[in-house]
Design a protein that fits this description.
- This protein is α/β, with parallel strands linked by helices.
- It has a single domain, classed as 4-Layer Sandwich (Metallo-beta-lactamase, Chain A), CATH 3.60.15.
- It has seven helices and 16 strands.
- The strands form three sheets. Strands 8-7-6-5-4-3-16 form a seven-stranded mixed sheet, covered by helices on one side. A seven-stranded mixed sheet has the order 9-10-11-12-13-14-15, with helices on one face.
- Helix 5 packs parallel to helix 6 and helix 6 packs across helix 7.
- 42% of the residues are buried.
């Protein structure tokens, strides 16, 4: 009996240690003091430009039950999704002037002006526990098959956007992250000289590429006590010949119009389309708001993100992308819909609705 109890205690301690390692460190109170003069930081936390609304009595297909995250979602696809499996040999030795690969959900690999930029790389599940928030399908590329990455851009610290194992695998890359996330990366062994933290309006420039952090309507947090202790960003990525907007996670707001006026027009807008629910109406965008935001940004092309991998909002996996196409019938916006792992370049104009094929 004592031996059994000892085993249970040891296993429990190992599990707790694992979870805390996945959660990562958040900024200390002393580190947070450096943000006190920022207009979007108050009472020890970062502030959304719009107050987030929650109405859990009005949850669509709800109520939301956390137990649903430990089993396959009833809203998941009934069969494996098509994808292009990528290995190291699928990537040229030198990155293209422009190409991108959607790796599923919000993960995107961009080749720009001979450099490779990886956005929110999450190749496993979206929780600190391995079996929680499972993927519909495996990612199209393994960590070991990723090419050399010059820059990793993180939008915020939620588990479907920031993954410890991927970060540690890419430890020699330059990390461009929101304010406060440097503490998490340093706790995972990333050298401080490889980390650039950006607040709204701040810029990082290298090798003819500018990365500008901008506003988003959202929040942050990985544990029970770190809500909004780190910032959340959208980004503008510019080279001499391309200008790309990447939304990260955001509810709809006036910031799209403001960003469009300040930085637009854009060759491409990569925008989240999924995660919406009437129970949290401005934490993520509804599909009709995505089309509106794309217009306000002045983007010629739209790459839908934040779909096809996780059930985070209680609706069928393809509902959001179907609604995007319905909303876009009377506009000139070109929607890019690659399968996961498929290469897109300047000549790509596909709007093939592959999710409807049998």
């Amino acid at each position: 009996m004592l031996k059994f109890l000892a085993i249970i205690i040891i296993m429990g301690a190992i599990s707790i240690g694992y979870i805390f390692r996945e959660i990562g460190k958040s900024p200390t109170p002393e580190e947070l003091k450096q943000y006190e003069k920022l207009p979007y930081f108050k009472n020890g936390t970062f502030q959304s430009p719009q107050k987030l609304v929650y109405d859990f009595n009005n949850v669509r297909n709800g109520p939301a039950n956390w137990l649903r995250f430990i089993k396959r979602s009833p809203f998941a696809p009934k069969q494996k999704l098509p994808m292009k499996k990528l290995t190291r040999t699928d990537f040229n030795q030198t990155a293209d002037d422009f190409a991108l690969y959607w790796l599923g959900h919000s993960s995107m690999l961009l080749e720009l002006d001979g450099k490779r930029i990886l956005f929110d790389p999450v190749l496993k599940n979206a929780a600190p526990i391995p079996f929680m928030v499972p993927r519909y399908n495996k990612a199209p590329v393994k960590l070991s098959d990723l090419p050399k990455i010059d820059i990793v851009i993180i939008s915020h610290n939620h588990y479907d956007h920031l993954e410890r194992k991927t970060v540690q695998r890419l430890k020699n890359s330059r990390f461009v992250v929101p304010l406060g996330i440097g503490a998490t990366l340093r706790g995972w062994g990333i050298k401080n000289e490889n980390i650039t933290e950006l607040g709204w309006g701040n810029k990082f420039s290298k090798n003819n590429i500018d990365i500008i952090a901008e506003t988003a309507v959202h929040y942050s947090g990985r544990g029970l006590k770190d809500r909004n202790k780190t910032l959340w960003n959208s980004y503008i990525v510019k080279s001499p010949n391309k200008k790309i907007y990447w939304s990260g996670d955001s509810g709809y707001g006036m910031h799209f119009q403001e960003i469009g006026k300040k930085y637009g027009p854009f060759d491409l807008a990569a925008i989240e389309i999924d995660g919406w629910n009437t129970g949290w109406p401005n934490t993520h965008m509804f599909p009709q708001e995505v089309i509106k935001a794309t217009k306000e940004l002045g983007a010629k092309k739209l790459l839908p993100l934040h779909w096809g991998v996780f059930d985070l909002a209680l609706h069928p996996w393809h509902e959001s992308i179907d609604m995007i196409f319905d909303e876009n019938k009377n506009t000139n916006i070109q929607i890019l819909t690659p399968i996961m792992g498929e290469k897109i370049d300047s000549s790509t104009s596909t709007t093939k609705q592959w999710w409807k094929e049998k």
